[in-house]
Amino acid sequence: MKLKFTKMHGAGNDFVVIDAINQQIDFTPTQWKALADRRFGVGADQLLVVEKSTNPSCDFRYRIFNSDGGEVEQCGNGARAFVKFVAEKGLTDRRSISVETMSGVIAPRLEDDGSVTVDMGAPVFEPARVPFDTEGLQGQPEGNDTLWPLVLELAGQKETVLVSVLSMGNPHAVQVVADVDAAPVELTGPLIEHHTHFPKRVNAGFMQLVNRHHVRLRVFERGAGETLACGTGACAAAVAGIRRGLLDSPVRVDARGGQLSIAWAGEGEPVYLTGPAVTVFEGEITV
Questions:
Q1: Does the annotation flag 77 for ligand binding?
Q2: Per-residue pLDDT, 120
Q3: What is the pLDDT of residues 77-131, one digit of tens each?
Q4: Is 231 annotated as a binding residue?
Q5: Catalytic member of 75, 87, 161, 163
Q6: Which residues bind substrate (predicted)?
Q7: In terms of C-beta distances under 8 Å and separation of at least 24 residues, what long-range contacts does 152-156 make, across chains too?
Q8: In the chain, where are the structural domains located?
Q9: Which H helix or E strand runs over 92?
Q10: For residue 234, what is the enclosing H or E element?
Q11: Stretch 163-168: mean pLDDT, rounded?
C-alpha cells in the first residue's frame, strides 16, 4: 500500500506523523520498526498516529510507536508535533485540543508564535504506578523527593547511581551529573533502561544544573536510544530538580537539539511543556 506521511521534529526529536483518519493503518511492530529505520525506511525516533478518539470528550486519539516498533504511553515532543499536524492538515480549526493517549488525556495548544504548549498532566511519584519495584532498595530523602540507588555492572565492576523516579505518562529515572557532555549516556543508559527494578523499562535522564532556572539534559529513551530531545524527559528532569530543592519553576531545558521550557506549580499540579514543532517534509512510501 501507499502510505502518506509527514516528517516533523520537536527540538531535533524527529517523527513520522501519519493520518490514520483518512488512511487505513494496521501495522505490525516489524512494519513500524521498518518505517522508522534511517537507512531502509523514512527514519524517526518515534512514529505518531492520528486517529479518531474513542472518548467522546476528546478531539483525537494519539498513538506513539518507538523506533524499535513498540507502542508506548506518551511523548511530549510528539504531542507538540501532533497539534501542529492536525492544524496544518485542516483536521481541526481549534488552537487548543484534547487528545486521548494510552496514559490519559493531554491538552496541547498552538501558540501565536508557532510554538506549542502541552498540559502533560500531573506527574506520578508512587513507585507502583511508575512502575518501579523498590524491593531490596533503601530510598534516600532529598528535599521532597526520594533518591533510589540503582546498581549497574560495568566491565565487571559495580557502580551505584542515585535517581529520581517518576512517571510523566511514561517512566523516567533522572540523575544529576556534573557535566552532561561527559556523562556516560551510551554506556549506562541501556543498563538503566533495562534495569530489573523497572518492569516496563525506563527512560534514563542525565541532568546538569546550570542555575535554578536552567539545566542541560540528555535522555536515553526507552526503545529509541539517545534522542536529541525528549519532552517527557525534560518534564521529568525539571520536576525532579524542583522536588529535590535544586530548581525553581519555570525551568529552561537545553537538549542537544534545542530548547524547551517547563512550568510546574508543585504537587498535584499539571506540568506545562512549551517548545517548537517543525514540519520538515511530506512524503509517500510503499509499505
A1: yes
A2: 92
A3: 999 999 999 999 999 999 999 999 998 999 999 999 989 999 999 999 999 999 9
A4: yes
A5: 75
A6: 13, 46, 66, 76-77, 170, 203, 221-222, 231-232
A7: 152/188, 152/191, 152/192, 152/195, 153/191, 154/187, 154/188, 154/191
A8: 2-120+277-286, 127-269
A9: none
A10: helix 231-243
A11: 98
C-alpha cell at 224: 529509541
Tell me the pTM.
Answer: 0.89
Active-site residue, from 217, 230, 247, 262: 230
Please name the amino acid found at residue 136.
Answer: G
Give the residue-averaged pLDDT of 39-45. 96
CB 119 within 8 A of CB 106: yes
Two domains, one topology: 2-120+277-286 and 127-269? yes
Residue length, the chain?
287
Q: Residue 154's pLDDT band (boundaries 50, 70, 90)? A: confident
* Domain with residues 127-269, CATH architecture: Roll (3.10)
Compute CA 77 distance to the chain's CA centroid, rounded to the nearest angstrom: 6
What pLDDT does residue 14 have? 97
pLDDT tens, position by position, 135-144: 999 999 999 9
Q: Measure the CA dihedral 123/128/134/139, to 10°.
A: 30
Question: 2-120+277-286 sits in which CATH class?
Answer: alpha beta
CA dihedral 151, 155, 156, 158 (to 10 degrees): -20
Residue 58 designated active-site: no
What integer pLDDT is reported at residue 86 of this predicted model?
Answer: 96
Q: Would you say 104 is a known binding-site residue?
A: no
